[in-house]
Amino acid sequence: xxxxxxxxxxxxxxxxxxxxxxxxxxxxxxxxxxxxxxxxxxxxxxxxxxxxxxxxxxxxxxxxxxxxxxxxxxxxxxxxxxxxxxxxxxxxxxxxxxxxxxxxxxxxxxxxxxxxxxxxxxxx
Amino acid sequence: xxxxxxxxxxxxxxxxxxxxxxxxxxxxxxxxxxxxxxxxxxxxxxxxxxxxxxxxxxxxxxxxxxxxxxxxxxxxxxxxxxxxxxxxxxxxxxxxxxxxxxxxxxxxxxxxxxxxxxxxxxxxxxxxxxxxxxxxxxxxxxxxxxxxxxxxxxxxxxxxxxxxxxxxxxxxxxxxxxxxxxxxxxxxxxxxxxxxxxxxxxxxxxxxxxxxxxxxxxxxxxxxxxxxxxxxxxxxxxxxxxxxxxxxxxxxxxxxxxxxxxxxxxxxxxxxxxxxxxxxxxxxxxxxxxxxxxxxxxxxxxxxxxxxxxxxxxxxxxxxxxxxxxxxxxxxxxxxxxxxxxxxxxxxxxxxxxxxxxxxxxxxxxxxxxxxxxxxxxxxxxxxxxxxxxxxxxxxxxxxxxxxxxxxxxxxxxxxxxxxxxxxxxxxxxxxxxxxxxxxxxxxxxxxxxxxxxxxxxxxxxxxxxxxxxxxxxxxxxxxx
Amino acid sequence: xxxxxxxxxxxxxxxxxxxxxxxxxxxxxxxxxxxxxxxxxxxxxxxxxxxxxxxxxxxxxxxxxxxxxxxxxxxxxxxxxxxxxxxxxxxxxxxxxxxxxxxxxxxxxxxxxxxxxxxxxxxxxxxxxxxxxxxxxxxxxxxxxxxxxxxxxxxxxxxxxxxxxxxxxxxxxxxxxxxxxxxxxxxxxxxxxxxxxxxxxxxxxxxxxxxxxxxxxxxxxxxxxxxxxxxxxxxxxxxxxxxxxxxxxxxxxxxxxxxxxxxxxxxxxxxxxxxxxxxxxxxxxxxxxxxxxxxxxxxxxxxxxxxxxxxxxxxxxxxxxxxxxxxxxxxxxxxxxxxxxxxxxxxxxxxxxxxxxxxxxxxxxxxxxxxxxxxxxxxxxxxxxxxxxxxxxxxxxxxxxx
Lengths: 124, 481, 402
What we know:
The structure holds three protein chains of three kinds.
Chain A: E1 3-7, H1 11-23, E2 27-31, H2 34-43, E3 48-52, E4 54-55, E5 58-59, H3 60-69, E6 77-81, H4 86-94, E7 99-102, H5 107-123
Parallel strand pairs in A: 1-2, 1-3, 3-6, 6-7
Antiparallel strand pairs in A: 4-5
Chain B: H1 3-43, H2 46-54, E1 61-67, H3 74-82, E2 89-96, H4 102-110, E3 112-114, E4 128-134, E5 140-145, H5 150-160, E6 165-168, E7 173-175, H6 179-189, E8 193-202, E9 207-209, E10 212-215, H7 222-244, E11 256-259, H8 260-265, H9 276-291, E12 296-307, H10 313-333, H11 344-359, H12 361-378, H13 383-410, H14 418-447, E13 461-462, E14 478-479
Parallel strand pairs in B: 1-2, 1-6, 2-5, 8-12
Antiparallel strand pairs in B: 3-4, 4-5, 6-11, 7-12, 8-11, 9-10, 13-14
Helix pairs in contact in B: 1-7, 1-12, 1-13, 7-13, 7-14, 9-10, 10-11, 10-14, 12-13, 12-14, 13-14
Chain C: H1 7-33, H2 42-96, H3 109-121, H4 124-136, H5 139-148, H6 152-165, H7 171-178, H8 183-197, H9 203-220, H10 224-233, H11 238-247, H12 253-265, H13 272-275, H14 284-297, H15 305-311, H16 317-326, H17 332-342, H18 348-360, H19 363-375, H20 379-401
Helix pairs in contact in C: 1-2, 2-3, 3-4, 5-6, 6-8, 7-8, 7-9, 8-9, 8-10, 9-11, 10-12, 11-12, 12-14, 14-16, 16-18, 17-18, 18-19, 18-20, 19-20
């Protein structure tokens, strides 16, 4: 089964993510912050990371940088964020995010993007 | 009745009246402050804050961190500032002629490189010897300058600042993730806003993760617990009340946000006082009231700044003595505001209040209580009256402390258990049974040492901001000068 | 962040406590000040003090027990509510995907909160269906009622909820709220109305709503920052709103400024020509905003070249700053020489803006900076040019290091 790690602190978004991804047949681990995410990333293998940027214990972009540097470098990362400023998007893509979904989001669109990120990776 | 006895009796009456009036005033402020906190808690919603972040309606901020010999805590502090959630800000660290490894630690941690740089020297300060920029964090600038004291360092930071708002923050503080956002909100809402102060809460005992205070726990020492109650009372009741009356005289030096042009207009921080934070606010009031421009200076209870408070008595007493000397210097410098109708409520009420109840308070308190005690011992005053009066003073203080603790309980991030509440209750009892009196004596003594030279960084025995994961018992003390 | 309940009760309890303290203290003060206790009054003084101690103890007990009870109850209550809300979110998601049946009748608070949260989280057709659910179950009408009547805090809560719900049918209620004499209600209503306006699709309704909101903001003289925020929050509907704000007979300077800033921020090229007259407006702030909008739009008509050139020599510093930024839209040779002149401006900030504008002009601008660094007659200009070039290098280095 395809494993997704979702890092998100807002409880509504979490429930939506869980519901959407599970009903599409993915295996989802949800964590509320960066430190938990680091731990899980160090322990397990995921096929995709869904990353919120505005987290209670830091900036998601920092985690993204670390993912690209040491923690499972090749894993596709889909950034899910309410920040829609150009600079943030550019910075995220520069740091190696595979795609960007802005909140509020539509579940079908999210699934489509998740599918594409996963597909791209297996195609590589 | 002899002359001596008559004087004693009169002093006793004055003391009791003084105390009663003060209690009534404090009660009234507390009520006004509580109302302000309640309204404030409702006016800024989550949605609103998210909108601010996401839609580009915000004002960029320059965070200014003055530091003197802070090698132990500076890296953790700066890291917590550069990782704040805010769309556009810079962090300017000013090392004020540090003689320890402050600069080395920073250079190492943030890959600093020296950079010849030109900037506007609007405020005159001791010379800046080098300006460095981080290769890792684009928004970080570190400047080193000749020693000139905290106010001088902040002024140098203001010169280097690029953004319209400046936020001087103590290097031993941690800011809440939303603190800058919440504070700057006031500047967006009101064009005439020139300064906003936030709440300061003791960090002692809290768990720190990623430069943020995450879980609160009661510190182990009573002296730290007392200060939790004390800070809550001062900010949630005192400053909230003054702010509501449009007569806020202090914005804590630990964390405040100012409009840069306003600070520059009045000439920046004054370097010759120990209380440069209060002095600036008084001067802003004065200059803006004089020029007739509309302006506002407010306290906002939610931007929260966590600070490490002294955990031993000598350090605490030194701190209070310094604060008191600063207060007196400032009141004296701006004595023309006292009872001056030109400054409205500020001149007719706030400044006289500060003179009478804050500036001279310790003198009246110490002399008054001593005279009551002597009267009781000599039998001029019924011993029972003395004890009742003392009891009343203690109970009154406890009521206010409990109200402040109640406001704290309304914060989402509060001391979590019911037993913590009981400890806070006990702390408010202990505070007025000895601690308060001790501080009053220290301030009483400070009153007579105010002429001494200043421009010093306050000596503070500190444990340093715990680095993660934090063993709370990390107590290797380092002391500054 | 605060708990938004139990605080008003706390204030009431505290008022009672304060009165308990104040009455004996007031009596004591009055008697002492009037010297009524006199020399033989020791015993009477004692009994008044005893009364004061007694009532203050009662006050202390009252306040403390409330705080303890509040701590205890709120902790349990919140856990419970959070769980119920989460269950409702899951249940509504089921309803939306057709897996669960829709509940009948009116909804409990947590169910409405869950819908409001979903409305904020979802986009597209799911979000529209959440709005339908809110309306169908009478939640919107209920919120509108609470937004208009009751205590200030209750009304604010309802307005914030409506601002999350963004239901077009509630727009006029919110616009009416802007007229409220309480500044908090007025501002919150304006924001909520703007967010709602962003979701009004019908063009006719949109224009009507925009003009009602604009009128309300003008009547209430809302400050610049709020008007600006409202414009930005209106998203797609900002065009209607800006049009109305600018057409107003005699618009206030803060409003014009906010509208023009909105044009720039939202890059509404459709208004490019409307900005032009404001480039020569009497109010400095408005002129500054117009120059800023021109820069952000990246469009400067030939007829306005002269205005920008004149603004480069304006007396007000911040006008020259914005003019320097806008000057990069002038014909290249002209821009290079004018900006090079500005490098020698008396204000540091103008010099900086000119240098940044030159950097923005690409290779030609950088070359001009290089020349200025060597040859400019003004020492400060040379310094600034050098600094700007150095910044470019450190940016490159940083990109490599990161």
